[in-house]
Structure formats: structure tokens, C-alpha cells
UniProtKB/TrEMBL annotation:
This is N-acetyltransferase. One of its GO terms (molecular function) is acyltransferase activity, transferring groups other than amino-acyl groups. Residues 10-162 form the N-acetyltransferase domain. InterPro entries: Acyl_CoA_acyltransferase, GNAT_dom, Mito_N-acetyltransferase.
């Protein structure tokens, strides 16, 4: 049975090889491919408001962080990042991570969610986010240095989460 757990040091360490592989691939995340385990832990677990893992049989299938996208008058918009283990891809894990993060965002008082840089070549993720109600609200031309495709665009994606505008 799959269940969500707040990410702690041990859970992150068990996910670290997958995290490192995803970042090193330089296909989806604008993180330093040479970042240390401690830097990754800080960015993914310590700095955000929350970080969760989806676990099945003591194996971390995926993880996400949740934080405010901006401060002050824009702190009602959440921002998340998601990673799925390569052996769990195509099994609905990203969908579960995104749905869980939206519920957590609402619980924490956020009214909307924004993804600041979805790499345009990450077509599977883009289709999923759109199916889950996110719209592409902007394109950042040549924003991402893809390891094999060179400079590619990134999208800003957004979804209003609250049922009514307060």
C-alpha cells in the first residue's frame, strides 16, 4: 500500500540516488548537477514549508516540496517541485504527488499554485499538469540548457485552487 510521509533525513537519503540521477540528467531541473547531498536536502526538505515522499513497501517512489512562490502580497500562491523514481514512472505517482500537494496547499491556506519553469521538452509532465487543470500562462524562451537538446523553452504553469475568490 502506498502512503505519504513527511520527508525526514532517512527518507531523503534513501531517495538521494534517484534525486541525484534526475538532477544529473539535466533534462528537467535547474539544479546544479554537482550539488552535494546536503545542498539537495536543504533545497528539497529544509527550505520549503513541507516536503513529502510517497512510499510503498519501504521504497520511496517519489517526492515533492511545497513552499510559497513569493512573499508578502503574493504569498497566497504555492510552488511545488516533484520527482519520481525511474522504476515508478508510468504508474500514476506524479499524479498522486500533485493531487496531494494541492490538498496540502489548500490546507496551508494557499489559493493557487504556480510552476515557474516547466521545461518544454518534458512533454509527459506538461500533459499531466494540463489534465490536472494547470494552464501555460507564459513561455520563457531558451530558458533551459538541456543536456542533449541545447537551449529549450520553459513554461510558467498556473492553477487557481480555491473554490471561490475571496
Amino acid at each position: 500500500m502506498m502512503n505519504f510521509e513527511k520527508t525526514n533525513k532517512n527518507l531523503f537519503l534513501s531517495f538521494w540516488p534517484e534525486f541525484k540521477e534526475i538532477v544529473s540528467a539535466q533534462e528537467t531541473y535547474a539544479f546544479d548537477p554537482d550539488m552535494s547531498q546536503q545542498q539537495a536536502y536543504s533545497i528539497w526538505v529544509e527550505q520549503p514549508l513541507e516536503s513529502y515522499v510517497l512510499v510503498e513497501n519501504d521504497i520511496v517512489l517519489g517526492s515533492y516540496y511545497l513552499k510559497a512562490n513569493a512573499m508578502g502580497p503574493s504569498n497566497h500562491i504555492a510552488n511545488c517541485g516533484y520527482m519520481v523514481s525511474k522504476h515508478a514512472r508510468g504508474q500514476g505517482v506524479a499524479r498522486q504527488l500533485c493531487l496531494h500537494s494541492q490538498q496540502r496547499a489548500l490546507t496551508l491556506g494557499f489559493k493557487a499554485m504556480q510552476f515557474n519553469s516547466v521545461v518544454s521538452t518534458n512533454e509527459v509532465a506538461i500533459r499531466l499538469w494540463q489534465k490536472l487543470g494547470f494552464d501555460i500562462i507564459g513561455t520563457i524562451p531558451k530558458a533551459y540548457q538541456h543536456k542533449t537538446k541545447g537551449l529549450v523553452d520553459s513554461y510558467i504553469m498556473y492553477k487557481w485552487l480555491a473554490e471561490k475568490d475571496l
